[in-house]
Design goal:
The chain is mainly α and 413 residues long. Helices cover 79% and strands 0% of the residues. The chain is built from 17 helices and no strands. Helix 1 runs parallel beside helix 6 and helix 10 runs parallel beside helix 13. The model has no long low-confidence stretch (mean pLDDT 82).
Length: 413
């Protein structure tokens, strides 16, 4: 049976890391559905949903760069395991809030801050572990499988979370707490190779900021990361799904879970395609095209009042976003020296989280000002324009052909 698995999943330590990401992502998605439904139910406010995204983002600018420094200075598996302890506590405390029948927004905001803090602490270390565990010839497949784990959780997590919430909200948080504990156990069992990273980074400001300097001096990486930032910042609509589900598409918590799963279904299809047949050429132009497709799908979603059309539009957005994410992740992994992986991944995480959590706040504010449907349509149109502009702003990115040809620039480092 084991021989039928992809070669990289036959490696014990990669399989443990992959399993950790799968169960923790599943837990996070289940929790997000429950929190979104409960928060929107407090005041029926899109702005409250945006505040949850902002609260998750707030710790990231403060903690991300120090966390990247930790990931390059201490064992990455232990740094990641420590972050999982924080994230395990969040659904456990949400369980307490639910049992206590608290009808205030502030506990959800406080625990959203804790979620952002745990993610900020562990994400650079977790992302840096993949190139450390996997040889270069298997890295493309490993990164695709990493994305598949996350998207599989996005498919199953919201649907399962919605079903469990419909039965009893407390069940969602109890299950999520158990899944985070399983992930923590997997990380403790992980064995990482003794990697020679060169001179340890000194605990100074210059060392902490080394990842920023490296990205700024690498146009291909800067272009890919910033394109993803602005595309999802303006084009994303996930934070508004509780509003669309309840007020526009007129469905319940199960329908909300299905809507949240739709982008991941499209992403899973793209991930399986990429795992079997990685991109062979024209990677830069492909990135620009799929970002424009992502924006177009958001325009369709924003104008739809039919549940089926909305599902298809969200699935197409997930398909396009998976290809974009795969190109960006491989660019970062292949172009970064191992000694800088934690700090570079920390900067990338800030960009990603800004596009997700800060994008959720932007969506909530825009929806409160102009209405949900006009806000999503305008964001999708802006994303299409950004894809066209980025090809001119970053010509080296548009000219990238085969990702395998990227390599660390030691002079830039």
């Amino acid at each position: 049976m084991r021989r039928r698995l992809p070669p990289v999943l036959q490696q014990r330590d990669y399989a443990l890391l992959w399993s950790t990401l799968l169960v923790t992502a599943l837990s996070a998605q289940m929790t997000a559905v429950a929190v979104g439904w409960q928060v929107y139910g407090l005041h029926r406010s899109a702005f409250d949903l945006g505040l949850i995204g902002l609260a998750e983002f707030v710790p990231l600018p403060l903690l991300a760069l120090p966390a990247g420094h930790l990931a390059d200075r201490f064992p990455r598996r232990l740094v990641f395991a420590g972050s999982l302890l924080v994230e395990t506590a969040v659904p456990a405390l949400l369980l307490v809030v639910t049992i206590s029948h608290v009808h205030a927004l502030w506990p959800y905001l406080a625990l959203a801050v804790a979620t952002g803090g745990g993610s900020a602490l562990g994400s650079p270390a977790a992302r840096a572990l993949f190139p450390e565990l996997v040889q270069p010839d298997l890295l493309a497949g490993a990164m695709a499988l990493r994305s598949i784990a996350g998207q599989a959780a996005v498919v199953a997590g919201p649907a399962v979370g919605g079903l469990l919430f419909a039965v009893r909200p407390e069940i969602v948080y109890a299950t999520a707490t158990g899944l985070f504990a399983v992930g923590f156990g997997c990380m403790l069992a992980l064995r990482t190779p003794r990697t020679v990273r060169g001179e340890e980074p000194a605990p100074g400001l210059a060392s902490v900021l080394a990842g920023i300097r490296f990205i700024r001096r690498t146009p291909v990486m800067l272009g890919a990361i910033s394109l993803d930032l602005f595309a999802v910042l303006f084009g994303g609509a996930v934070a508004l799904l509780p509003l669309f589900a309840r007020s526009i598409l007129h469905t319940g918590p199960v329908g909300l879970g299905v809507l949240r799963s739709a982008p991941a279904i499209g992403a899973l299809v793209a991930g399986v395609m990429l795992a079997r047949r990685p991109l062979r050429g024209s990677a830069g132009r492909t990135l620009l095209v799929v970002v424009a497709v992502f924006g177009s799908s958001m325009v369709v979603f924003g104008t739809s009042r039919w549940f089926a059309v909305s599902l298809v539009a969200l699935a197409v957005s997930g398909f396009a976003d998976m290809i974009s994410m795969n190109i960006r992740s491989l660019t970062v992994a292949l172009a970064t020296p191992d000694a800088l992986r934690g700090r570079v991944n920390a900067v990338e995480m800030v960009f990603i989280s800004a596009s997700n959590e800060l994008g959720a706040f932007e969506s909530g504010v825009a929806a409160a000002l102009m209405g949900a449907m006009p806000a999503v349509v305008a964001g999708g149109a802006l994303t299409i324009a950004i894809a066209a502009i980025w090809g001119r702003l970053f010509p080296p990115l548009a000219r990238v052909d085969r990702l395998e040809e990227l390599h660390p620039d030691w002079e830039t480092a």
